[in-house]
């Protein structure tokens, strides 16, 4: 199983493919270079043997009798032996009668293929068809000539022939140099096969380098795969370990520093991005868990109250004269439950940018409509509203009027809720340098703490849980998503009036 797992790994596949490709390239190049090397070596060797055969032929011709049948000079044998030693070849001196009158060695197998001595002489004769009657100087692979049939077949031979000087123009004998080209020891073997051996060594060295480099490349990918598997199995705390040399000073995987991003290579950047995605997924999972917990709590409370009061009235626990009081509480809890369900529905539908139909509308008129709809709540707390809006000529904006109305309702409802008795709400607007319509809603209520400013737009966050227990914590979250869906931003802060301050922008036509 481990072997199959290894073969399925990206490291093994990468190593195998690269090694196979390099092996093919090395085989092709090695074959070409080896063929060129052998060709050049054979050419050099044949030329060398030819020159030596010519030199011996000239020297021997001067030291033989006129008929070229016997050696007259005593220096000829020693010269032939010296040449044989220097060329590492067998030297045969063939006279005009075809007799091998002098040699530095004849293979055992060759004796049976030579002609027997004639006229009771002791010299074996070279077969007529193997004699150089063309009287040309040649050097070639022995198997390409008749000489090759006389030599042992378990070796490769090279043969060079140079005719002896002839005064009559007839065949006067020749000098034969026979050299085995089959390696007989390790040194010769290395010399003959230097190129393929060098390529083989180079291949294994390249394989070692590829092994190290591919491991460096594929190790992070394997770590990524292992981390992804841990995340898949539910371990959201899993992170890909970043090489220490590439760690930023902040150590925050959720933030990619542009300067550090330039320094990191592609794999490290991938690891950082992967960690950032896991971290975001972990946050989303935590938000989902908190969302379900908050929803369960906010739904359970009114449902429990309604069920308890209804059961109390049905089983007679609540006296009949008090039922009207508790029915009003049930009605209030039902409205609260309906409001929460409506806000949840809004959160999953109206916040989708693709479902919003944009148009041009007068936001001043929309603000007045929202204020009119909240007139009762404003009068109950005797809250004054101060308007400092742009002129009607500059009050046209681009957006979805129903969604923006929801934003205004949510912000204004919060302002009314936190405003004290006889409080003040200020609504002002202006046109920014970027030609954006900016709306500011402030109040003189209890305000927001620094922590509230950071988290007030989060889902189910309540700035004052004690005073705002009737709120769902979704209003500002919905407002932020609506504004974001318009491509704009909404901000919370501290008002000069002493309370909270909310600001958002919209595009102008």
Question: Helix and strand layout, with pairings?
Answer:
Blueprint: H1 2-8, H2 10-62, H3 75-87, E1 90-94, E2 100-103, H4 108-111, E3 138-141, E4 157-163, E5 174-180, H5 186-192, H6 194-232, H7 258-263, H8 266-314, H9 323-349, E6 359-362, H10 363-373, H11 375-380, E7 384-388, E8 396-399, H12 401-418, E9 424-431, E10 436-443, H13 450-455, H14 475-485, E11 490-494, E12 500-507
Parallel strand pairs: 7-9
Antiparallel strand pairs: 1-2, 1-5, 3-4, 4-5, 6-8, 9-10, 10-12, 11-12
Helix pairs in contact: 2-3, 2-6, 6-8, 8-9, 10-12, 12-14
Low-confidence stretches: 1-7, 246-256, 258-262, 465-469
Q: Which structural category fits the helices and strands?
A: alpha+beta
End-to-end CA span: 67 Å
On the 0 to 100 scale, the average pLDDT is 80
Principal-axis shape equals rod-shaped
Q: Number of DSSP strands?
A: 12
- Helical segment tally? 14
Largest sheet: 5 strands, antiparallel
The CATH class of the largest domain is identified as: Alpha Beta
Please compute the radius of gyration using only Cα atoms.
52 Å
For the largest beta sheet, what order do the strands appear in spatially?
A: 2-1-5-4-3
Query: What's the CATH architecture of the largest domain?
Result: 2-Layer Sandwich
Q: H/E order of the elements?
A: HHHEEHEEEHHHHHEHHEEHEEHHEE
Architecture overview:
By secondary structure, this protein is α+β, with helices and mostly antiparallel strands. It has 3 domains: 10-195, Beta-Lactamase (2-Layer Sandwich), CATH 3.30.450; 219-292, no CATH class; 351-507, Histidine kinase-like ATPase, C-terminal domain (Heat Shock Protein 90), CATH 3.30.565.10. 50% of the residues lie in helices and 14% in strands. The longest helix has 53 residues, at 10-62. It is rod-shaped. Residues 1-7, 246-256, 258-262 and 465-469 have low confidence and may be disordered.
């Amino acid at each position: 199983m481990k072997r199959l797992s290894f073969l399925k790994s990206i490291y093994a596949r990468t190593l195998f493919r690269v090694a196979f490709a390099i092996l093919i390239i090395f085989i092709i190049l090695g074959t070409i270079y080896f063929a060129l090397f052998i060709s050049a070596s054979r050419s050099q060797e044949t030329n060398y043997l030819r020159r030596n055969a010519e030199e011996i032929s000239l020297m021997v011709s001067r030291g033989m009798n006129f008929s070229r049948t016997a050696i007259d000079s005593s220096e000829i044998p020693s010269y032939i032996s010296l040449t044989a030693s220097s060329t590492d070849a067998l030297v045969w001196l063939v006279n005009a009668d075809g007799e091998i009158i002098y040699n530095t060695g004849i293979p055992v197998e060759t004796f049976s293929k030579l002609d027997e001595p004639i006229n009771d002489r002791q010299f074996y004769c070279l077969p007529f068809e193997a004699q150089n009657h063309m009287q040309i100087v040649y050097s070639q692979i022995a198997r390409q000539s008749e000489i090759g049939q006389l030599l042992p077949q378990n070796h490769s031979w090279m043969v060079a022939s140079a005719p002896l000087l002839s005064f009559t123009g007839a065949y006067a004998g020749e000098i034969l140099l026979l050299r085995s080209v089959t390696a007989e020891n390790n040194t010769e073997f290395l010399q003959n096969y230097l190129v393929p051996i060098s390529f083989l060594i180079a291949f294994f060295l390249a394989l070692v380098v590829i092994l190290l480099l591919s491991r460096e490349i594929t190790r992070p990918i394997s770590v990524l795969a292992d981390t992804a598997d841990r995340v898949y199995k539910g371990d959201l705390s899993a992170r890909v370990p970043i090489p220490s040399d590439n760690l930023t000073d902040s150590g925050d995987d959720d933030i990619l520093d542009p300067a550090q991003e330039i320094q990191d290579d592609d794999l490290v950047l991938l690891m950082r991005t992967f960690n950032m995605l896991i971290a975001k997924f972990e946050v989303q999972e935590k938000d989902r868990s908190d969302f379900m917990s908050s929803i369960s709590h906010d739904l359970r409370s009114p449902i429990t109250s309604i069920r308890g009061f209804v059961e109390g009235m049905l089983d007679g626990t609540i006296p009949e004269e008090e039922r009207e009081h508790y029915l009003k509480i049930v009605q209030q809890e039902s409205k609260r439950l309906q409001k929460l369900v409506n806000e949840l529905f809004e959160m999953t539908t109206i916040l989708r940018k693709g479902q919003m139909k944009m148009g041009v509308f007068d936001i001043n008129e929309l603000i007045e409509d929202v204020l009119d709809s909240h007139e009762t709540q404003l009068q109950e707390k005797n809250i004054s509203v101060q308007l400092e809006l742009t002129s009607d000529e500059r009050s046209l904006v681009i957006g979805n009027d129903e969604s923006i109305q929801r934003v205004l309702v949510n912000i204004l409802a919060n302002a009314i809720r936190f405003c004290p008795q006889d409080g003040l709400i200020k609504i002002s607007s202006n046109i920014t340098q970027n030609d954006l319509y900016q709306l500011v809603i402030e109040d003189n209520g209890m305000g927001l703490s620094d922590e509230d400013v950071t988290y007030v737009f989060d889902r189910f966050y309540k700035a004052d849980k004690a005073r705002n227990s009737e709120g769902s914590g979704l209003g500002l979250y919905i407002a932020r998503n609506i504004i974001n869906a318009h491509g704009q931003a909404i901000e919370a802060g501290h008002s000069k009036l002493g309370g909270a301050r909310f600001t958002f922008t919209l595009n102008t036509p």
